[in-house]
Amino acid sequence: MRNASLEKVLNQAKKRSDKSVNSPARLVQVLVKDGDDVRNLISVVGTLTLVAVAIVPVFAATMGVQTRVGKCEMKNKRTREEVARVITIPSPTFMASVPWLSEDLPNAA
Fold this sequence. Notes:
- By secondary structure, this protein is mostly helical.
- It is 78% helix and 0% strand.
- The chain crosses the membrane at residues 41-62, 83-102.
- Keywords: Membrane, Transmembrane, Transmembrane helix.
């Protein structure tokens, strides 16, 4: 790629090279710098890809734990609702042992 670019630069008219912006040294510098920048970009993209792939197992494990916790929460919620539905009827002996409850008891006699 660099050779093709250099060949195209060298095949241009001499009049174009008279400007300081288009001097051969400047053009070669830009070509080399751009090549290095592309290499660095590919390196960064590769590194970011590896980081993303490394995060996938952690994310999957977190989602698995969250699913299990959600199932436990649903089970506990259902159990709590079932317990709340149970009506507890205290025995007469218990009612008689608590003074403020014994007043409400009908006389057995």
